[in-house]
Amino acid sequence: MIRKATVSAIALIATLASATADDATQIQWWHGMGGKNQEVINEISKRFNAAQSACALTPVSKGTYEEALASGIAAFRSGEQPNILQVFDAGAATIMNAPGATIPAEDLIKNAGYDFDREAFINGVRYFYADADGKFVGMPFNSSAPIMYTNTEAFEKAGVAPPETWEEFEEIAPKLKEAGYIPMTASQLTWMFFENFFSRNNIQMATNGNGYDSVEGTEINATDPNLVMMFEKLKEWHDEGLFGFYGAGWSDNQAPFEQNKVAMWIGSSGSFGGLQQTAEMPFSATFLPYWDGIEGAGTNSFIGGAALYAMAGHDEAQDKCTADFFQFLTSPDVQVFWHEETGYVPITNAAYEQAKAEGWYEQKPVAEVGIQQLSLPGGEWSKGYRLGFYPQIRSVEEREFNRIFSGETSVQDAFETIKEEGDALLARFAKTSG
């Protein structure tokens, strides 16, 4: 039996705990993730709240990346924006060019009294969410790279090694087909074979410094002869049974690889965790190939995924809590936890070194491939792109890619259409921003 005094003491403790929680500065984090990733986000938020008493962070899923961005913009216009908004790579220009919408992450962190070292971040992450001068506007969060997963059994049967270049792919693909496999599939051609064609081959993707320098007069380099050549090759390989294209759906192109029908699948480094559960055969991974015949090719890829943006319009205490969370999020322990639980890369060199020291890559060597690719030497055009209305431009690309592989249009005509409609969207964005 509990004494009356003890009951009173327990009640007092509960009251004090409740008061402490109520006194904490409340901040919200809106994101576009579900499933396992949402569970890990919730756990990171709990750990942040438990690590200090001044701030209380509440994560809120807003559905998809696109829905999270739309919700955040609408909330800002009505003065009800969250403190932190997750925005995916293609939406970076939209949020960065919205007047007064965000506080640059680097400024926020420094204003809170923390040091900020740009060089602490891995090479492929360092520039994508920064401005033209290198200042971090967004805080990189779930970062990934487009890599080539390889079916170990298929390569053993064909007696060949995974390719480093597209020239090597052309040599080995017929042997993989003879061994009974579709040599290659790929998901999200917009990311793999459009954006990252430019990065891996160090070719300019758009004027005005890939869009970093100005929104005025920016045009997309969609008719670059090397890019057109890449898709003419893809169409040729498709017609010869060397490349399988099953539509714009991510899983449509991943599933045949998981089912042991395909030798190579180009997907996200962040897919590694899921593949461990779904693949019906042993697999490995290597870098996204490049064209050896293109001068300067072989540079690092653009990152995929999303960054976190500190939304403007909040009081000093809330901004300080947002900075505290960004500092917490980039700590090696938290980054290693996120990396190992989700498959996304650790964004700092310190976290990468910690994961190596703990032997993670000895257990899971595929988990290191994306980081290694992002850490390759960079080139003038492999730092990133900043294009307005790019989600809509991606939709134009997807439509035209479908028409290419269905035989409804030629590669040249498709890319002339992408350039014409893409440039029109960029011009419209320039009129609506600033």
Tell me what you see in this structure.
The chain is an alpha/beta fold and 434 residues long. It contains 19 helices and eleven strands. Strands 1, 2, 3, 4, 5 and 11 form a six-stranded mixed beta sheet that branches. A five-stranded mixed beta sheet has the order 8-7-9-6-10. The longest helix is centred in the last third of the chain and has 22 residues. It is globular. The termini are far apart. The N terminus is likely disordered.
The best one-word shape is: globular
Q: What is the straight-line distance between the termini?
A: 69 Å
Element order: H for helix, E for strand:
HEHEHEHEHEEHHEHHHEHEHEEHHHHHHH
Q: Compute the CA-based radius of gyration.
A: 23 Å
Main sheet specs? 6 strands, mixed
The strand count comes to 11
Structural class: alpha/beta
Instruction: Average the pLDDT over all residues and give the rounded result.
Output: 93
* Poorly predicted segments: 1-20
Approximately how much helix is present in the residues? Answer: 40-55%
In short, what is this structure?
This protein is α/β, with parallel strands linked by helices. Helices cover 49% and strands 14% of the residues.
